[in-house]
Write a structure and sequence with these properties.
The protein is of the alpha/beta class and about 300 residues long. It folds into two domains: about 5-190, HUPs (Rossmann fold, 3-Layer(aba) Sandwich); about 205-295, Pantoate-beta-alanine ligase, C-terminal domain (Pantoate--beta-alanine Ligase, Chain: A,domain 2), CATH 3.30.1300. About 35% of the residues lie in helices and about 20% in strands. It contains ten helices and ten strands. Strands 1-2-5-4-3-6-7 form a seven-stranded mixed sheet, with helices on both faces. Helix 6 (about 140-155) packs across helix 7 and helix 9 (about 215-230) runs antiparallel to helix 10. The chain starts with a strand and ends with a strand. It binds adenosine monophosphate. The site of adenosine monophosphate (AMP) has 17 residues, from helix 2 and strand 6.
Amino acid sequence: MAVRQAAGPVTRRGTRMVRVRAIAAVRRSVGRWRARGERIAFVPTMGAIHAGHLSLVRRARATAERVVASLFVNPLQFGPGEDFRSYPRPRRRDRERLAAAGVDLLWEPAVTDLYPPGHCTRVRVVGLSDVLEGASRPGHFEGVATVVTALLHVVSPDVLWLGQKDAQQARLIERMVVDLRLAVRVRRAPTVREADGLALSSRNAYLSADERRQAVALSRGLKAASRLLHAGERSAVRLRAAIRRTWRAYPKVREDYVAVVDASTLAPLARVRGRALVAVAARVGPARLIDNFEWGPR
Ligand code: AMP
């Protein structure tokens, strides 16, 4: 396999971010750092880097001496008719942003690097994969679990940083790491939002100006549910109704799901007790957006 190693833009520490494609090159860099006793934090991304991704990098920096990030639009997690082809890929800008945030090694694998000819191994996290996002996007989490397993085997980080924005994905990977006895600590970072509350997402780029204004419905609905929880409401039916009531003012927002589930098992709750996940998904114009918050003791 050809090893392509390019000196990327300059990182905040003044060193150059190294950019590689080949698995062997990732292993060499990580091996060198590990031999010196340095810890490795890993931030996997699909690119179209925004402040949410950069907050993960900043947290990663605080938990390890070295930060590895990956840019890979994973075909296996997109269903037929989804946006794999049109997913934004502003690579040059991504590299600059990741370097400025302090990434030491940026891994940009090609599809054939992660899926060699004839590949047929899949990782499935049973149950957690089949609800919420998994119910709307069959096969999505098998694609996620399979690629994250491969990424973790190559990078072998001490810490893996994920965003609360994709709560089900984070939960599933936490479970998988326990079940497969992977030697990595999984950490979650809070959702970074626009000033009006909209969760940052690479898919927000699909929104027209009017759709962008309406997209705030997701976080507004969650705010309404959160206010009710603070006021003592525990009925999942009433919490979901409050979100849907909020959404009535936003005609371009088409519900996919509004759910109140156990944050660990993702099983539906009739009443909120323990730690709960309030999660929503909706289509706004061409974009399918998700958002959530967790409530209660960890
Ligand atoms: P993606 O590039 O969409 O696959 O996301 C890469 C990582 O960034 C995942 O762990 C996401 O959960 C996380 N992420 C995406 N959006 C946000 C956000 N608004 N705030 C914090 N983390 C995020």
